[in-house]
Amino acid sequence: MCSWNGLTCSYDDARLLGLNLSSSGLSGIISREFRHLTSLEMLDLSSNSITGSIPVELRQLQNLRILLLYSNSLSGQIPAEIGLLKTLRVLRIGDNMLSGNIPTSIGNFSELQVLALGYCQINGSIPVEIGYLKNLISLDLQSNSLSGFIPEEIRACSELQNFAASNNRLEGDIPASMGKVVSLQVLNLANNSLSGSIPIELSHLSNLKYLNLLGNRLNGEIPSELNQLIQLETLDLSENNISGNIILLNTKLKNLETLVLSGNALTGSIPSNFCFCNSKLRQLFLDRNKFSGEFPMELLNCSSLQQLDLSDNSFEGKLPSTGLDNLKDLTDLVVNNNAFSGSLPPEIGNMSNLESLYLFDNMITGRIPAQIGKLQRLSAIYLYDNQLSGKIPRELTNCSSLTEIDFFGNHLMGSIPATIGRLKNLVLLQLRQNDLSGPIPPSLGYCKSLQILALADNKLSGSLPATFRFLSELYKITLYNNSFEGPLPASLSLLKKLKIINFSHNRFSGTLSPLTGSNSLTALDLTNNSFSGLIPSTLAMSRNLTRLRLAHNHLSGSIPSEFQLTELNFLDLSFNNLTGEVGAKLSSCYKLEHLLLNKNQFSGTLPAWLGRLQKLGELDLSCNNFHGTVPPELGNCSRLLKLSLHSNNLSGNIPPEIGNLSALNVLNLQRNNLSGSIPSTIQQCKKLFELRLSENFLSGSIPAELGKLTELQVILDLSKNLLSGEIPPSLGNLLKLERLNLSFNQLQGEVPSSLGKLTSLHMLNLSYNDHLAGQLPSTFLGFPLSSFYGNEKLCGPPLLSCLQTSGQVRKKLSDTEVVGIIVVIVFTSTVICLVMLYVMVRMWCNWRKVSISSMDGSGIEQKREEEKWVYGDEKGRNDEYWKVKNLGQHKQIPRTCIFNLKMDMEATDHI
């Protein structure tokens, strides 16, 4: 037996000392019969598929020193009886599905050196009995659900070298007593909920090589005393709330290779003595802090740096043009999301080991230097969201290792390099939102590893090259907002991995069939092109299609009956020439959120199954030839935000179930043949901000309940109906309303004064109701007269003022009263004229007597007076009076009393 695989016996083969069945493909449970192997010193069943619990019978193996059960599927709790194995030195039972607490009986392991319980589902706290393990060297509790505090008693584990409790729920402060475990080399407390400041006492751990406190709630500043950890190789304090300046990396930390301070609130600039000669620093991550100042030139002294990340800070100024050669080992330069300006230095081409260049979201200007083509190891270059201009250098295509290019959101111009096909490893090409022009170079089709091609928002033109058929790995292509034209190459149907296609806002024509070769489509957007023909039924083969947008084309025929796309949530076929009825198969698209079929020639009735589309948020069937009634089942679409059925031939009543659409923002039913009254249930649509019911045959009164729609803002349009009755005063509650149209109805009564409170109104139309009367609210003064045409009984600004008598509104005079008033006016005028004629004759007679008696020398004075009378005084000349007198003296017209009366009235009107 002792010659069997995995068995170890004593020298005399009398006793079985070891059983090693690790990685033997075992399954099932651990047999309780193991209890008979009392001489066993080592039991290794690790890395198998063993299930069940840890049998308590193992407590009888009193000679056991090593128990290895890790990497299985054991479940249940750790039995407390395991604490009876007092000779145990190594206990590794992690990477299982064990749960429950850590038994306090572990305090009996007086000889235990390794305790590994990581990667289980153990909860509870770390027992204080851990302090009894005087010989413990390694304690692994990571990736469990442990909570509570780190026990102070751990300071008694004087031999402890490795303590890993990351990825738990530990809380409270890091105990200062941890500084007494001077033998510690690894301390990993990452991803817990530890708080407080970093204890200064950690600086006493002179043997510490690895310190990881990332992902906690630590605050305060980094203790300068940490510079005393001269053996430290890795320090990770990222993802905390640490503030203050960097005071690390003086000449004592010569062994530090990795420093990670990402995701804190550190401020200031990089200190001038940050790097020193013979530094071993390879990885420096200072991203997502509040550092400021110019590019830290001190970092150019870190000649051993391989990875540098300064992203998401407030650095500014120009990138250094000299000294970059010092970073000859740098593989990753990440300085995105700062405020760097100036041009991209050509010297960057001398960083021969550079693999990743991340400069996006800065303010870098100028051209991309041709020297970038010297970076033969460059695999990713991200320059998006800058202000780069000029052409894409042809030399970039010399970087044969490139897999990712992202120049989105710049001002690059010219054509795509014709030699782009040299980049055989290219996976991502993102050139969206630039000023690129010209055609797509045919060589692009030879980038056979390409998966994402984004050329949208440019000025590209021409047709798609036939070489695209070689892009067999392509799954996303966006070409929208360009000037591409012509039919699509039939060979595009060979691209079987395509998932996302957006060719919208171009001039493509012909059939859609070349884009239906893939059954993996999830999004297809061809809006605003000139595609024609039928919608291919093969689109239904893409069972995961979620967005289909074919609006603004010249498509004809009907919706394919095969469309049973259960994942579809956006269907836009608007502005085409589609005909026929809306097939019942669409009812299986139960995830639809947007259904837009407007501006087509669909016919038939609105199907009742629309009410089963419970996730529908936008339904637009307007401008078609639908007839029949509005189905009450639409009231079941409780998430509907927009319902537009206008410009059809719908008839019948507006169903009261429309009030169930409590989330509705827009309701447009205008230009139909709807009749009956406006349902009062519409008051339940509390979120309506646009309501259009015009150009129908609605009758009855305007429901007072409309005044409860206080979110109405865009418009309330009830015009061109048969509505009667008075305007409800409750409409004065619509304080946000900007446009109100009640014209061309049969409304009557006064305009409620409450409408004067609608101060947001900038368009009002009450015209052609005939029966509206009374004074308008004073706030209507600013509206044009056209707002009130066809309402003769309305008055007040901007109309004529209202005549009031004894507090009553002016009434229209009868014909008899009008004749009587005219007779009185004529009689009175005649009497006045006769009296005036008599007075004038007497005055003339007196004047003749005075004139004859003064012929002996007073002619000069008389002439002056006559001139004043006729022409007026020079100082107080009255032009109007002069005109009347002049007319009387120079025109010999016989004057009747009626003529004189007319002249007086004209003079009065003129004044």
UniProtKB/TrEMBL annotation:
SMART domains hit by this protein: LRR_SD22 (SM00365), LRR_TYP (SM00369)
Example GO molecular function: kinase activity
Transmembrane spans: 818-841
Keyword Iron-sulfur: no
Record keywords, A-Z: Cell wall, Glycoprotein, Kinase, Leucine-rich repeat, Membrane, Receptor, Repeat, Secreted, Signal, Transferase, Transmembrane, Transmembrane helix
InterPro entries: Leu-rich_rpt, Leu-rich_rpt_typical-subtyp, LRR_dom_sf, LRR_R13L4/SHOC2-like
KW Calcium (keyword) present: no
GO cellular component: membrane
Short name of any one Pfam family annotated for the protein: LRR_14
Localisation: Membrane; Secreted, Cell wall
An annotated GO BP: anatomical structure morphogenesis
Domain of life: Eukaryota
Domain Disease resistance R13L4/SHOC-2-like LRR: 633-771
Bilayer disposition of the protein: Single-pass membrane protein
Homology family: Belongs to the polygalacturonase-inhibiting protein family.
The protein, known as: LRR receptor-like serine/threonine-protein kinase GSO1
Organism listed in the record: Tripterygium wilfordii
